[in-house]
Amino acid sequence: MWFRWKNRGFMRAAGWALMLATGCVAAVSADLEKEGQESMEEELKTGPRNVVEERVSNLVRRMTLDEKIRYLAGTGFDFEAGLIGETQPLPRLGIPAFRMTDASQGSKLTKGATLFPSTIGLAASFDRELAYAYGRAVAEECRADGFRILLGPGVNIYRVPNGGRNFEYLGEDPCLASQLVVPYIKGVQEAGVIATVKHFAANNCEYFRRSANSVVDERTLREIYFPAFRAAIEEAGCGALMTAYNPVNGDWAAENRWLVTDILRNEWGFDGLVMTDWWSIYDPEKVLTAGVDLEMPYAEILTKENVLAVLESGKITEADLDERVRCILRPCVEFGLLDQPHADPSLHSTWDAHAEVARQIGRESLVLLKNRNSLLPLDRSRVRRIALFGKNAVETSASGGGAAGFEPGDAFVTYEAAIRAAAGEQVEVKVYPEHISAEAAEEADIAVVFLTMVEHEQMDRNFEFDEDSLYTLNRVASVNPNTIAVVSLGGGVEMASWIDDVAALVYAWYPGTYGATALGEMLFGDLNPSGRLPISIEKRPEDTHYFGNYLPEDVILPRTFHGWDSKHERFDVEYREGILTGYRWYDTRGIEPLFPFGFGLSYTSFSYGDLMVTTGSEKGGPVARVRLRVRNDGDRAGAEVVQLYVSDPECDVRRPAKELKGFARIALEPGEEREVEFLLGLQDLSYWSDAAGQWMADPGTFEILIGASSRDIRLQAPFRYESRELY
Ligand code: BGC
């Protein structure tokens, strides 16, 4: 939702308009009811919101200058002692410390927390309800142990496959990321935990991330890299935001006034907590004038001495400091953190339900990319022997590394365990994690090769697997025609050179504690795969938008994580491709990817028909209502992800060939048919006009494209948009 509504209360009260404008599936009437309820709840909160403001102002009024300055930074960092970050306690005023925990795959500091499948896998599900359940479950585990600020979710857009944190994010498309992050945050916050959307902004590579200056034009930021942040703030009412490590167009993200004050505060109306990423600021004056509230994890730059010096210079006043402190306290007061005990141990009883949520994310995240001659699903009565190759079969990487990762715990299901459980007693499963037995590969009815790489924040990885992995794959595939490759990564990898050698390919992301169960279920047909790629996978970097626009040419990326805090001279990462990232690039340039955005196979097939587009006439209402029917033509139940793309061929300015503006995940029994409806708002037709400094929708004929992927358009219809509106 991109209209310039500044007030969060109004945003939620305008819930229906919001649904229209974001292209949600209106057919899901439960969603509508929920929106209705929320707008009522919001109205009821009008009173308490004033109470919050008064209480916050009162506290700030009673703080001494010393206390205010101290409040601008966290208390410290001591991971071994269970401290990632917390705000300062001010016992004199009855303000406790507000404790924080990471985040991306579960509550890192909670004892015995569930490690959920990576959020890139959630993105592959295209499932808004699952996103809500994910956020809620993580938050309940935070709250159980007293962490009321969650340092997630991350919504940086997938730009290069090498990116060390792709697994923590929601893929390449701003519409997909926005529409999943909103329910995720609602899930977190409805459990009484403040979500922290991160890392604002343009943090799309991890290679010397403090030095990688993202050079991005305004239109590209607004159309590609900002929308998920904006949706988090305006639609989900996210309580906190974390800035990024990298400079953006010259200034470090937390020292960038345009980003933090002009865009986030003034345009999007954000009045919550803006914290820095850990140890990521350098110049106290720039940080304070940018509009950032909280240095994390402790005062290294916003020391008393430095803050006093900026005050004395007249660049900021004490009233500015008051505003910073108010922004920190506001969400904390609003979420009851001053009134309730922070820990709620009774929530430990929810862990079993969370295990089920985690299993379900695992199920919906699997993307079947190749299935030659319908090798899958396997028939238990006909398969006698399965051989598993690669270390990841037994020492399964449950997640990528860094802030997101933690131990999956005793209940951890490895791929080997999952396949054994699903295969049953009749099928012999043998594992070869290290050495390759060509004989075993040949004798097995089915060979499964597990492939992964180290992915970790503060490093970007290679585009190719290491030689050992490729050797294993080639050797096994050369003797067994029924070889299945299972890739666990957060992004694309070189596969064009070997894809023809394998019979089947599964993208499995990272499974967390329980997600691997789904792989066993899927191989044997107990689960019909329904995940769709939230990224495009290239044949070769030369074909892509980022080729020549990524790292300096002489960089050799590491294979393993090399440690923290390395220093480097600043270098530019130029986003020369502008708005043409991922499928926008391939489709506009007519280049074929290896696997397109939105693609994924199923064990059944779906047909599409009866597309009807009607034009809306109400001012501020939907500009188009799109209806179609989808049918499951096969003999298995399955879920289809119907994708709506919009194309604007008549526009005077350059626009991508098409852009995702809506999607619906529809579960259908064999032979079942359902109507799917999308409502498009003005924003769905709009682009950011640099000339006008506004969003614009040019009148003319647009095309509505309905696809099973960005490259599999099943239905198409033109529709005219007549008026010219600036907003
Ligand atoms: C990461 C953040 C994380 C923080 C605290 C940083 O290294 O970039 O995403 O929340 O550490 O662990």
The secondary structure category is alpha/beta
Shape: globular
Number of strands: 26
Q: How are the strands of the largest sheet arranged? A: 1-2-3-4-6-9
Individual helix count: 20
Largest sheet features = 6 strands, mixed
Termini separation: 12 Å
Low-confidence stretches: 1-46
State Rg: 25 Å
For the residues shown, what is the average pLDDT? 92
Helix content estimate: 25-40%
Multimerization status: single chain
Name the beta content range: 15-25%
Give a list of the ligands.
beta-D-glucopyranose
Architecture overview:
With 727 residues, the chain is an alpha/beta fold. Helices cover 29% and strands 19% of the residues. The strands form seven sheets. The chain has a six-stranded mixed beta sheet. The longest helix is centred in the first third of the chain and has 17 residues, at 46-62. The two termini are 12 Å apart. Residues 1-46 have low confidence and may be disordered. The structure holds beta-D-glucopyranose. Beta-D-glucopyranose is lined by residues 84, 102-103, 151, 198, 277-278, 403, 457.
Quick tags:
727 residues, alpha/beta, 6-stranded mixed β-sheet, 20 helices, binds beta-D-glucopyranose
Give a concise summary.
The protein is of the alpha/beta class and 727 residues long. The protein binds beta-D-glucopyranose. Beta-D-glucopyranose binds next to loops.
Structural topology:
Blueprint: H1 8-13, H2 15-21, H3 29-44, H4 46-62, H5 65-70, E1 85-86, E2 99-101, H6 119-125, H7 128-144, E3 149-150, H8 174-190, E4 194-200, E5 212-215, H9 218-225, H10 227-234, E6 240-243, E7 247-248, E8 251-252, H11 257-267, E9 273-275, H12 284-290, H13 304-313, H14 318-334, H15 351-365, E10 367-371, E11 385-389, H16 415-423, E12 428-432, H17 438-443, E13 446-452, H18 467-479, E14 483-488, E15 504-507, H19 517-523, E16 571-574, H20 583-589, E17 606-615, E18 624-632, E19 638-647, E20 659-668, E21 673-680, E22 687-689, E23 694-697, E24 700-709, E25 712-721, E26 725-726
Parallel strand pairs: 2-3, 3-4, 4-6, 5-16, 6-9, 11-12, 11-13, 13-14, 14-15
Antiparallel strand pairs: 1-2, 7-8, 10-15, 17-18, 18-21, 19-20, 19-24, 22-23, 23-26, 24-25
Helix pairs in contact: 4-14, 6-15, 7-8, 7-15, 8-10, 11-12, 15-19, 16-19
The protein binds beta-D-glucopyranose.
